[in-house]
Amino acid sequence: MDKEQTTKVPGGNELIDACSLLEKAGIEEKMKIADLGCGRRGYFTLQAAKLTGDQGLVYAVDILETSLEDVKSLANLFGLPNIKTIWADLEVLNSTRLPDSSIDLAMLNNVLFQTQKDELIIQEAIRILKKGGKLLITDWKKIKTPFGPPVENRTDPEYLKKYGQKQGLKLKKELVAGPYHYGLIFIKQ
After folding, report:
1. Residue 52: inside a domain, yes or no?
2. In the structure, what pLDDT confidence band is assigned to residue 9 with cuts at 50, 70 and 90?
3. How many domains does the chain have?
4. Is residue 50 situated within a structural domain?
């Protein structure tokens, strides 16, 4: 696959520009990344794989095997051999089976509104992060929008900031992730 085709990896649109968010999170070549709850299209997974290069590694983690199969197909289509899929129930600690302190950047993108166990999911992300590693959380703003999940299911970013601090995370940056989403970047202390 030529370079021109790999630059067209999906992941940027009017709702959330995955590439821009990953660049703001400080993604670099050779990083190890975990996209926790990668989803069927794996937009963040694909962009992360492109940005980390051949010597980087991106774990696409999801509970739906069909989503993981779709991500594998897209990785093959776009010539991204540095993606490895993992089936896991993120609501169960250690379910990713990734080693403690092994990941440079963990991502939770549009995941937390789908669960009542967001603290367990965040704890799993923290467990796998290296000291100094980053956690990128992107989710729906807690405002009325023309589409998206019910407002009462959305996670308040202020809650995440307080919970993150209690878990040993330091807020590095707050981002506008699009018209309907916020982004938070934490660093593991």
Report:
1. yes
2. low
3. 1
4. yes
* Token pair of 137 as six digits: 């959380």
Measured distance CA(3)–CA(66) in Å, rounded: 28
Q: Residue 127: which of 157, 158, 106 has the closest Cα?
A: 106
Q: Is residue 83 part of a domain?
A: yes
**Span 44-99, pLDDT tens digits:** 999 999 999 999 999 999 999 999 999 999 999 999 999 999 999 999 999 999 99
Quick one: tokens of 164? 């993150």
Measured distance CA(35)–CA(83) in Å, rounded? 10
* The pair of three-digit structure tokens given for residue 10, joined into one six-digit string: 């999906």
- Global pTM? 0.91
Residue 1 lies in a domain: no
Residue with tokens 């089976």: 97
Nearest Cα residue to 95 out of 132, 130, 123, 137:
123
